[in-house]
Amino acid sequence: MPVSRRAFIRVIGGGAVVVAAAGAGAAGFALTRTPTRALAPWTEAGAGETDIRRRALSYAILAPNPHNRQPWMVDLSRDGELTLYCDPDRVLPETDPFNRQITIGLGCFLELLRMAAAEEGARIDVTPFPQGHSPEGLDARPVAQVRFIEDATVSRDPLFAFVLDRRSNKEPYDLARPVTQATAARLESAVASTPALRVASSVDDVQIARLRDITWRAFVIEMETPETYLESVRLMRIGKAEIEANPDGIDLGSPMLEALNKVGLLTRESLSELGSSAWQQGLDMYRDIIGTAMGFVWIETPSNTRIDQLETGAAYLRLNLKATEIGLSMHPLSQALQEYEEMAPVYDEVSKFLRREAAGHIQMLARLGYGPDIAPSPRWPAATRIATA
Ligand SMILES: Cc1cc2nc3c(=O)[nH]c(=O)nc-3n(C[C@H](O)[C@H](O)[C@H](O)COP(=O)(O)O)c2cc1C
């Protein structure tokens, strides 16, 4: 549906571009722009499959994962087993050069697989990296060999109830609603801190101010470094047609952004140009997002092995589900934790500020607060993630 420039009022306020669609035509346009097919995996999870592995897979693909790359690929050719691989085309070489974050996303996937199997009275036996692994990067070797075993003693996980409502909420949060210490403690209770993994959080004003500042400076570095910024731009899906064609990456799916794209105000070309007004608006939008962090939660491991990263994923998924249960919004801000040269000073700063052990590794850092309700993010259908049936 063509949308004229006049259908929009462009207001520059607080740096962000706010565009109000006017008239019934615009409302109709908005209604047709929902990428229904890309969101179907959220309503189809668990349905229409007779094989427990496939049912569990249909939930596991809803796991949070960096830039929504959905790096998982599975082989179901062995009876009662699932072999998990990392799809080498779905990694992020610039912002995640050692595949640390991608591995965390695969850890989220495995934890969801475990929870989904438990719902049906099965436990999974997971052998991580059965053929070994490299600290340099993931390769063609499997990430995990998983056996599904019926087990009457397995307990269902209460957090499973929140799987379909879990979100990474990237909107600004309510500055008038602080996160209380009690709420942060409830969130942390989703994960038992052990010597192998520690969850910590802060809702203290001074610490929040410092972490807002660090995560903001890190975000600016990512935006000002052509390689890391362009890695994101290449993964942007603008509007319904692009999202449905590739239901992954960074979805700029709101009717507003799609309409701006149609009238030439927000294009891949303008976004690709560092310093352009589209680039500046992206930056301004994030100032508001980071500036409304009302608390932070982070995960530290004593070392940084592939196993630590998988376990971080399981813990992060549990925190995200617990946040959903208690009505808290959560949003990872990973820039400061990324391992590339331009980020090194901020990486050192945030590590020294947060870690408890000198050799410890901060694996995840997320902001907390209360944001608006948001739609789920796109997913490839589970069937497309099965390399060998
Ligand atoms: C290891 C990891 C790092 C992430 N880092 C960021 C980040 O820096 N910024 C961000 O907006 N989202 C980040 N996310 C959230 C993903 O973008 C999000 O999970 C993905 O887009 C899917 O959306 P969903 O979680 O709402 O299903 C991260 C997620 C994981 C697992």
Structure description:
The protein has 389 residues and is α+β, with helices and mostly antiparallel strands. It has three domains: 5-35 and 227-273, no CATH class; 38-163 and 376-388, 3-Layer(aba) Sandwich (NADH Oxidase); 165-221 and 290-369, NADH Oxidase, CATH 3.40.109. It has 13 helices and 13 strands. The chain has helices spanning 23-32, 36-44, 52-60, 100-119, 181-188, 205-224, 226-234, 239-245, 255-262, 268-272, 277-290, 306-325, 344-354, and strands at residues 8-13, 16-21, 72-75, 81-86, 122-128, 144-150, 198-202, 236-238, 250-252, 295-301, 329-332, 361-369, 386-388. The strands form four sheets. Strands 5-6-4-3-13 form a five-stranded mixed sheet, covered by helices on one side. The longest helix is centred in the N-terminal third of the chain and has 20 residues, at 100-119. The radius of gyration is 21 Å and the shape is globular. The two termini are 41 Å apart. Mean pLDDT is 92; it is low at 1-24. The structure holds flavin mononucleotide.
